[in-house]
Amino acid sequence: MARTVTSTLEIHQVYEQFATEMKKLVDFDRVTVDTIDQEAAIFSPEYSSGVELGGREVGKVVPIAGTAVECVFRTGRTLSREDIRAGDRFEYDSDRTDAGLRSHILVPLVARDRTLGLMSLQSRRSGAYGPKEQAILERLADQIAPAVENARLYDAVQQAHNELEPRIEARTEELTRANTSLRESEEQFRRLFEESPFGVALADEEYRIIKVNNAYCQMLGYSEEELSGLSLNDINHPDETEANEALFMKLFRGEIPSYQHEKRRITKAGETIWVRTTTGALRDENGKPLYVLGVVENITDRKLLREQLVQAQKMEVVGQLAGGVAHDFNNLLTPILGFSDLGMDELAADHPAWKYFEQVQGAAERGADVVRRLLLFSRRQIAQPKVVNLNDLVLNTERMLDRLLGEDIALTSSLAPDLGTVKVDPGQMEQVLFNLAINARDAMPGGGKLTIETASVTLDHGFSSDLS
Predict the structure, then answer these.
(1) Residue 424 Ramachandran class (φ > 0 left, ψ -120 to 50 alpha, else beta)
(2) Does position 451 have pLDDT exceeding 90, yes or no?
């Protein structure tokens, strides 16, 4: 019997084999195995074979109060009834008598000092279960109880496995999705790091570079291997080292969340470049900084353009001031030149005062030259081109040019009679003539001759290419 009932862990097969083997030893018309829930005060038929009783189907929950099962569970001893119609009466006895059952014996199933349940045999014969049958059934109960316990444990393990397996599968699928998402996030971060048009660098608490991208390397002229392990002070401008490190440590201590500033970096070639850095901390789940991430943009050209713009604005202010001074100075020179001309007209060339008027006029003309230069420097008018004849423009400016050149330089002109017209701004063209005349005068400090010539020429492609 022991080998038979322990040959399988399937609880239903254990009961079937138990009933088959027991039938060979003890006669019965109905057999059940009931499990007991002491705390809930209920029991439930777990196995049934033979005569059927209404309300006692397998799996049905039955209150234990008032039943023969309660008596056996309370005493822990076998209950044998020779005739259920006589003696103590229990719940469901009428159902048994109606089904023609007379004898009834209940044997507890005990394993490791714990009552697992009981087996119940019933017969249509009165007195079917005497001391001999009781002894046989109690020995059978001792053999089957451990098998029943093992089978129930196996069944519980299987049930737990069946319940756990979907959860494991669901959790595995969840972890798979999480790992996939993590890999995708890591790949996106890697691509963002490597392919960013801005320089990106990771540094640790020791102020040392851990990793850089290609844009960062190109910006400074180093390879990634050369930069890895360097201190940031190795590439910071010496004048800014202390301030940069102080900001970095404030970030690592959590005193500031991030920072952005402009600073200078030293390239591998020793050149100084201007960069704008945006720096923040990468933290663990507890908020502790692990690394510092810096995004660096080279703003050297922008910085130069900004300085040029500031300089241009300054020059514009200077030009406006120079223009105002030139106009005021010109207003002073006009009567000086006019009255000196009038005085010289009134005097003979050999008059003692003539040379003084001549000196006054020369000084005034030089002052007028300075005024013209200041006006040219401060000129901000919009070009107004019109069709003109350059011969007329040269003739109109000859008198002014002659005064500008002085007596030591002779001014002549050679104007083409068939000269074509051009579309230019007359004022700007006069400035061109003034500039040429001033350059010529400065190139001939000992005096000389300046000839202004006009002619119609055709500029071919080769000439244009040479100029470009």
Answers:
(1) beta
(2) yes
